[in-house]
User: Which sequence fits this backbone?
């Protein structure tokens, strides 16, 4: 179990993957850190992804990166949801990107 503490406020992208798995990617608003709940996705995200215009975006770009994550998976045919969350203090499986 990889339990992490968060500041409590985050923007979150939920990606509904095949076989019923939902991966979360979030931007901690206080720390500026991007994390994910899916260990395999972490490696993909660390390499950076392209936004809808094809521009490479890196995790250090914070909210712009999270937006690119949304675009990347949406354009790939995945069901994706963006939400904001408050009151989150601990996440059971969290992998810093």
Assistant:
């Amino acid at each position: 179990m990889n339990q992490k503490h968060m500041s409590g406020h985050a923007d979150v992208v939920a990606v509904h993957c095949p076989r019923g798995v939902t991966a979360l990617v979030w931007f901690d608003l206080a720390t500026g850190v991007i994390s994910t709940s899916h260990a395999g996705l972490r490696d993909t995200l660390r390499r950076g992804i392209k936004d809808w215009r094809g521009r490479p975006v890196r995790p250090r770009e914070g909210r712009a990166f999270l937006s690119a994550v949304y675009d990347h998976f949406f354009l790939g045919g995945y069901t994706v949801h963006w939400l904001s969350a408050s009151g989150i203090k601990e996440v059971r499986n969290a992998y810093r990107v």
